Amino acid sequence: MNIFLIPSVHAETQIADKCSFEQSEGVNPDPQTINCLLTEAAVKYDIPPEIVKAVAEKESAGKQFEDNKPLISEDGGIGIMQVTQKDNYDDTRLKQDIGYNIEAGVEILNKMYDRNDLPSINKSEGSVNTYQRNYIENWYFAVMAYNGIKPVNSPVIQENGDENKEAYQEEVFEIIERNMDRELGELDFSRDDFDYDPAKRDNIRFVTMEYRFLEPFTSSNYFYKKGQTVGVVQEVNLRSQPTTSNPNVIGKVKQGEHLTIEGSYTYEKSQESLNPFVWYKVEKENGTKGYVASNYLRNKFKDVPANHYAEESIDQLFDMNILRGHNEDTFGMKENLIRIHAAMLFVRAENLSLTGRPDPGFVDVSPESRYFDTVSAVADEGIFNGDEKGNFHIEDDLKRSEMAVLLQNVYNFEKSSKEHPFVDVKDDIWYDESVNRLYHAGITSGVSADQYGPSETVTREQFAAFLIRSIEYQKNN
């Protein structure tokens, strides 16, 4: 077991002060004080609070004490977080101080995330595709390790290959789904990924150490900033106060509407409420202000109109950590996509390694360029080529002819015996076959019934739609 640091007394005091909490011997705090203590400890360690709260619920039903005595399980787990690694913690404080116990558990969970002997999910080297801590699904194996990497927690039952719904981490994730009122991204594991003897208690041997899931993942709803644009995952109530305990509904927020965050989250007004979420004060586009429960919020680009044909594609690619805007609020609608940004999207979508690639030799991309590694990767994979003079043309707008070839290079759409209907695509021109395959795969239908528009540029939202269709094609074929 790793050596853990003793939680900082100063940090605990800060959290207790923020939550207006003072420990009384043998007494569990009210539900919203516990909500606050768990949330603030999680935020301090940059862990999605949704995870920490679900672990606490699974471990102890959110209780530090039972019958005025410290809650201690048969296997020696102590308190709300059922901490069993006691050697480096104060045993008395683990039993008597809920704030100390929570921070010990959160610290252990954080250490589990940083272990290099556990599989990673959607992890990639370098800054191009950062392993984001705020995506809940990325914590799957850290949550598993919090309880133990034993056969009982195998994601898949070895005997029949079925999903192991009784695994610790599966039950924690089920709690998260219930608390957030939405489904998390699907993690499709195989029994070949895990080697263990179900009759023994030896640790699981992880056969697969890196997973790449092209699924929309779920980001934590506790890190929004003042002025940030968000939306909702379903129609929700807008309330005058941060509580569900009284009739204070002042309106509705519909899916697709843009909201502006007014400030940091706040806690439920009713201290006895069992609501596991927090509240954000938001402003609607018509100026109406009110509170929305955090579990229904999602990131949103303010320049992507509701019900736009590419809205869902943009949201999906964002949730896959493939697509990013100019900043957290602006996507760049109607702007032309440049070649280097297309290259970055392919690197993220295909999880391409940026190391060990040969110099592609483009005269306009020097080894000192911040794009050198990305360009080297897509050139080495045979996705991009330069021109006859050896230039990559980093900042050139992507043309529809190029787009067809790039998507074909990556996704290898099936050859069709039928011809496309486009009169502006000459037979045997360098992009003819790619256009034909994309057309019959349903990726693009052209700019009109008989015009493909090969020399026209591709906008950012158009490419988002083409890319998500290509990813879906890859999944289904």
From TrEMBL:
Keywords assigned by UniProt, alphabetized: Hydrolase, Protease, Signal
Domain of life: Bacteria
UniProt-listed Pfam families: SH3_3 (PF08239), SLH (PF00395), SLT (PF01464)
PANTHER family, per the entry: OUTER MEMBRANE PROTEIN ALPHA-RELATED (PTHR43308)
SMART domains: SH3b (SM00287)
Gene3D superfamilies (UniProt xref): 1.10.530.10, SH3 Domains
InterPro entries, per the entry: Cell_Envelope_Struct_Comp, Lysozyme-like_dom_sf, SH3-like_bac-type, SLH_dom, Transglycosylase_SLT_dom_1
Protein name: Subtilisin-like serine protease
SUPFAM superfamilies the record matches: Lysozyme-like
Protease found in the keyword field: yes
UniProt GO MF annotations: peptidase activity
Domain named SH3b: residues: 225-301
Naturally occurring in which organism (per UniProt): Halobacillus halophilus (strain ATCC 35676 / DSM 2266 / JCM 20832 / KCTC 3685 / LMG 17431 / NBRC 102448 / NCIMB 2269) (Sporosarcina halophila)
Domain SLH, residue spans: 297-360, 418-477
Gene Ontology annotations of biological process type: proteolysis
